Amino acid sequence: MHLHAPTIMTLMSGIALLSVIALGLEWRRSRLPALGWWALGYSLLVGSLALMLLLKDAQNFLALGVGSMLALAVYAVMLHGCRVHVERRPSLWLFLPPLTWFLLWCLHWQPMTLAESFAERRAFFSAAVALYCLGTVPLFWSRRNGLQAERWLAIAFGGHAVVYCIRLIASLNGGAVNEPAMDDGLLIAQMFEGTLFTVVSAALFLSLAREMTERRLAAASQTDFLTGVDNRHAFFDKAGALLARASPPAALAVLDLDHFKAINDRHGHAFGDEVLKLFARIVAADLAPGELLARTGGEEFALLLSGQTPVEAADRLRLLGQRFSQASTLVLQVDPPATFSAGLVAANRATELESLLQIADTGLYRAKHLGRNRVEIMAGIEPHRLLARPDGDDPATRRPEAANAA
Q1: Are residues 29 and 103 in the same domain?
Q2: Helix (H, G, I), strand (E, B) or coil at 256
Q3: Where are its TM segments located (predicted)?
Q4: 14 lies in which domain range?
Q5: Which of 199, 221, 243 is the last residue of a domain?
Q6: Contacts of 314 (CB under 8 A, 6+ apart)
Q7: Which of 313, 376, 380 is nearest to 348 (CA)?
Q8: pLDDT, the chain, mean
Q9: H-type alpha helices, 4-66
Q10: In this predicted model, what pLDDT tens digit does every residue of 249-286 receive, in sequence order?
Q11: Pairing, β 292-297 against β 300-306
Q12: Is there a contact between 190 and 163 (Cβ–Cβ < 8 Å)?
């Protein structure tokens, strides 16, 4: 079967249109901002190819001037979308090459014959596309977040850049003087590569979006919806691994807000939610790498501190308690100021996490029994002693109203 450029351009425009639809539908589902930019990029590709196909015989201002400008804008918009994806600052300089092309076409190339301007046009276009693709590669390749599609996108854009670098070298070396015919073998090969790149890049963008959506859903399943910190399930997943890797000392704490039921009764549950969020923000802001905070239920939180003995951790918790009390008064006008109690234990990889939490929980109830707004450090306790609270309060037999009164 004999192929010529218009046939391949028609195929590429159809693929680009399908890519627009697929990316648009994925954007409606996931609302990832980068998807909108990538869909716009393929829309510009459809427009560029349509102009060149409809006006291929005229070889006029719109086909070569505006059509080629749109083709360059495709890569500018795609690179912008990639920067949005990796949370880089937007740059208007990305759109300079399409505008430069249009100005050069109006002032320099349009009055020339097509043969005279072809080598210069191809050199400029090839250089611009190669730079766009090379600018995309490090955005994806340098990422270390486990998204496989990012690595493959870096490879795809890198390969596309190599093709346009070869085109640039051929243009600068005078490898082509005249406009190629529509059935020229080199042109057909280049357009095949462009069609393949369109298919592969669109598929990888979709794959990347789905990977991100899955990761976002997984993160949501391990995040407390109210405070934004980890939930109990996430704490057990992460804390065990951190303790296995961490070198001592380390400390595990169980924290509980004092008189939280009274705050809810006096100010309402919405206000109580704000107190919980304020507490989580203050503690989370103090965390170092390798430390964990999780809301384990109600007004109770678990905290894993690395590189600190229980005594050092207790001093740190007392400072956090002062900050929380001051902030509750200044920010939320809580009167009397909100406080918390905590139980602390030295954490180590030899003791099961559940047992460590039970020991720290025993310290928490001791702190409550001794007057609240304090930190109690616990030494190792035999497992059978964990069944009884120091104040005789067993969490398995507590009435709901008694639990809330804590």
Answers
A1: yes
A2: strand
A3: 6-25, 37-55, 61-80, 92-111, 123-141, 153-174, 186-208
A4: 5-221
A5: 221
A6: 342, 344, 375, 377
A7: 380
A8: 85
A9: 5-30, 33-54
A10: 889 999 999 999 999 999 999 999 999 999 999 999 99
A11: antiparallel
A12: yes
